[in-house]
Design brief:
mainly beta; 4 helices; 46 strands; Beta-barrel_TonB; 59% strand; iron; Plug_dom; transport; Maltoporin, Chain A; cell outer membrane
Length: 731
Amino acid sequence: MAASPTAVTEQASLDDIVVVARRAQERLQDVPISITAISAETIKTAQISQGSDLIRLVPTLNVQQSSTGPGQSYSLRGIRTGVITYFNEVPTSTNAVNNQMWDLESVQALAGPQGTLFGRNSTGGAILFVPARPTGEFEGSVELGYGNYDWRQATAVLNLPVADAVSLRVGGRIVRRDGVVKNEIGPDFQSQHRDSFRASLLLEPGSVFSNYTVFDYTDVNEAPGALITSNVRPTAGCFPGLGCLYGTQPAELGAIQDELGIRRVRSRYPAIQDSKEWGVTNIAAIEPTEGITLKYVFGLRRSSYNRFTNQTTLDLPIQIGNNFQDFGRVISHEVQALGNVLDGRLNWAIGIFRSKQESRGGLSYSLFGNPNLPFSNDRNNFTTINQSQTTTGVYGQATITLADGLNVTGGLRFNKDKAALLTSSVGPQFTFFGPQICRFSPTAPGVDFANCTRSISDNYDAVTYNFSVDYRVSSAMLLYVTTRRGYNSGGFNPSVPASQEPSAPQPSFGPEYIRDYEAGIKADWHIGSMPVRTNLSGFYGKYSSIQRSTFGVSSTGATFIGTSNGPKATIYGFQLESTIRPAPGFLLNANYGLLETRYDEGSPGFPKGNAFAQAPKHTVNLSASYTHDLGNAGKLVASTGFTYQSRISFQDDNLGSSLAFQKGYSIVDARLGMSDIGETGLSASLFVKNLTNEAYALERQDLVNAFGFAGTIYNDPRTFGLEIGYRFGAN
């Protein structure tokens, strides 16, 4: 099955991607772990513009939209809390990378625990966003786009060789779009208003030293997705001893919403998402002697946000309020040494990582408020939140070649985390009305009742490891087996009141652990003269104290989401990624993921035998692209993609609730364009996303038992448009 050396070289030159899964540049086909690597060209043809688009390319990936704050949560192999996003080798927030998905060199999704070489410990995986580096050439591009819902986008990139050893790359993107959920009596929902900027500076004064700095900035001021209200009961808003606070209005308004459907609402209560974020990363590397490299990786990120929402689309202040963060800061330092000895037969890496994350914010909400009174912190449930987390990791890993083609890798990491929380919480004395009183129990740990504050902290530590054996059967085929132990730190749920029901999130949660096993094959081969690449991996993992995002309702009736520890659990499955080039210019890709998840034991909120929430059993990604050279006229470029995800649930405790599930759905995208028209550098493309106008839920909150209704955020409808671009200079 192995291809000839000539064919391997040809195939590698067509679509090979350099990855940094082991903190050094390697060919994708040489790394003995499961990686989905997405090139800059694929990002363009697959129309990847935000995090939720990655489900079109990555097996077992699911992306959930937050209903309470900025950003999205990524789930790989059914695991959400343990997936870390990185930008230029530094762990960062999903909100930051979601708005910097332009001018990228690649996106790399690493499935499974990444608890040895990477900065932050993780149990589910890591997604690496690699920005395009400055080059020594003068080049640039400008691209303008227009589409339905008055979508407008402008992107510009300029690369400048400042001096012989200095290169600068700057760029920016502006996005505007009307809301896709129309509001008949107020501002629309689910709009886009995003400004982002990036500047990169590369210094290479000699062959042994380099310094690479990236600055990024994002400003978002838009309306988030609406929680479309459904399943409104006649008793919604009715409570024992209080009666029905809004009479029959909730049921009447619910009937109106049912008639309006999922793309229209009638609500005077707006939704606002305003966030600002900037970051600096710096990577300094020096080679003091041949075979040894010293690296220092620095990261600084500052952020703030305010998100005001109504938890329903009914024209009533049932639960309106804002989550806000006045100050957020993350500082990280990593010192690393890499080297090889024994004529390259032993490659090693050692390092230390330390980060400190701090934030100051809170939430203010009115619960079943008076429609005739203005929103006011003085009457609301009002909580302030100051929290910090310090992470330290010391690690080492080595790979030795025992025989021709046979390599053994071992890695060990010592992890230590400290989390601290200072919070205050007041609310109406009679749940929905009355003077504000302290919401803490005087006897709860860490409570200073006189000042209505709670101060708690905790420490967590663990040892994680990685051990693998890989064997290169030929230059075109790699076999590997690996086992890993992963750990995800414990912490606090700052918005969760004390003393909740066992099935609801608690004020704190403990660490999560996993031991996993993976075996795989990476092969380049041929069907006749057609080059084929096939990467297949199977995995099996055992979790203890698994961390899951769960939902609860407080004794005062407020809804909240937090992290809970579940019982022992098992995941297993496989993923297949294949590429074939049937003819010059014609490329086919097919990815498939099979994921089985279950709770081996039962506990409140986690029924024994249940599958995980946000864990589709089947994921399918199919794509085709064709490039035809028209000579001086330019190149014709056509592409299409098909994505399928099977049924998922939104709650781990999903027995007997149809609202807990989203049925399987498929997405079809297409793009047709011309590049380098008349050898002028001009390009033009027509595109459509979600061609069949498929509707599916991104997030759902089932409040039927608590409040008498449910709320769902849906995906974007069919969008289409035109993009015109111009490239100049060396590219």
